[in-house]
Amino acid sequence: MKKIIHHLNFQVVVAIILGILTGIFFPSFSPTAKLISQTFINMITMLIAPIIFLTIVLGIANMDSMKKVGRVGGKALLYFEIVTTFAIVIGLMVANLSKPGEGVEMQNGAGLNKVEQYKETASEINWIEFVTHIVPRNAFEAFTKGDILQVLFFAVLFGYGLSKMKESGNSLILTFSKISSVLFNIMKLVMRLAPFGAFGGMAYTIGTYGTSSLLPMIKLMGSVYATMALFIFVVLNLICRIYKFSLWKYLKFIRQEIFIVLGTSSSESVLPSMMKRMEEIGCSKSVVGLVLPTGYSFNLDGTSIYLSMAVIFLAQAFNIDLSLSQQLTIIGVLMVTSKGAAAVTGGGFIVLASTLTALKVIPIEGMALLLGVDRFMSEARAITNLIGNGVAAIVVAKSEKEFNQDIYNRAVNN
Which residues are paired to 283 by β-bridges? Predict the structure, then answer.
């Protein structure tokens, strides 16, 4: 019993339960709870950029050639596009079958000020600029802002430059390796505080939005959660079977990260530890360094499902009968807009606004319906994104023969 109590997973679960109870009975604690949760996420965020940089640099410096780096990156992007498209299609199919938006009463004026803010921000998004934004104007600024894609781009170039130094670069590689070990030791310490972050995140969510806001939208929430589960246990499970590894054993191996994401509603809160876990399950450092950080911007399976279902939900709420061609257009638009969800401030809501603006069929004001309940679906999005990115790392590692089966067997059978 004493061993269970000291286990981080148990502590996080207890913290989530306490957070829910605190939010229900002491809603005035919400501002303080938000500070607690945000402080924990900030502690993780401060480690993300340097850990990504060092992992990618060390991985590329130890790779055989830059041709292999390009091949790994290309496979990852192809995989991301195929799987997220499946996620979008599944979201559309389930929303069309379950019809969560039918019978919803539109509340005029509710949340319209916030919707206008999202609409204004979405109109400013330039997707060509989003692509070119990957190249940092200042490498140090990319680190201070914590821009994952910019750090990744600079790390690839730095790793390439270091690999060209041959033996003369070994001393720098050794130094970077030692610094990387220091950062992961810091991360272990920070992760011990995860129960506080989970408690704060859950107490803030329940205390701010209240459980009453769930009742009118329970059908949409049920549909979203069911679709996420369908995607994980059918689509991702099928991918796992094709590449000969167990989804269940993988989920058990990363259960600590899943619990933390459940509490904090942020998949970024476990990015450093997921990179370590993927190495511990058998993926090479180079594949993990390239696939996981990139996946946080381009492989958002949960976000893709949510966005597709939200669009259909709003169409049903406004009694707009979308034709097959219009729904195919939605798939095409979301294949582009969903890729920017993690890189745009405000996340999925702004991307949803940009998608509705591009479609010009569904009134963007309908987003006010989703404001109160969105936070309660963010956990499902974040967990699905997390699980999908881990599966992607294993798939790419296996396809590149950069996966150690013996390490995997030891890791999942302990």
Answer: 403
Place of tokens 């450093």: 272
If you ran DSSP here, which 8-state letter would residue 6 be given? T
pLDDT tens by residue, 304-349: 898 888 888 888 877 888 788 878 888 877 776 666 554 443 456 6
For the full predicted model, state whether its pTM sits above 0.85: no
In terms of Cβ atoms closer than 10 Å to its own Cβ (0-12, 13-18, 19+), residue 59 is buried
Nearest CA to 348 among 388, 372, 381?
Answer: 381
- Nearest CA to 197 out of 256, 275, 278 is that of 256
Angle between helices 285-298 and 66-98 (to 10 degrees): 40
Q: pLDDT tens digits, residue range 88-140? A: 999 999 999 988 877 665 554 444 455 455 455 444 445 566 567 778 888 88
Partner residues linked to 403 by β-bridges:
283
Q: Of 344, 9, 363, whose CA–CA distance to 198 is shortest?
A: 9
Angstrom CA distances, 207 to 35, 108, 183, 213, stand at 13, 25, 34, 11
The CATH homologous superfamily for domain 2-412 is: Sodium:dicarboxylate symporter (1.10.3860.10)
Q: Are 275 and 294 in contact (CB under 8 A)?
A: no
**Domain ranges, ordered by start, for the chain:** 2-412
Q: Give the orientation angle of helix 255-264 with respect to helix 30-61, to 10 degrees.
A: 140
Which residue in the block uniquely carries the two structure tokens 């011990």? 192
Both structure tokens of 315: 């169409």
Rounded to whole angstroms, the Cα distance separating 119 from 366 reads: 11
* Residue of 224, 265, 237 lying closest to 386 (CA atoms): 265
Question: Residue 214 burial (CB < 10 Å; 0-12/13-18/19+)?
Answer: middle
pLDDT, tens digit (0-9, with 9 covering 90-100), for 206-227 = 887 666 655 556 778 888 899 9
* Burial class of residue 58, CB neighbours in 10 A (0-12, 13-18, 19+): buried
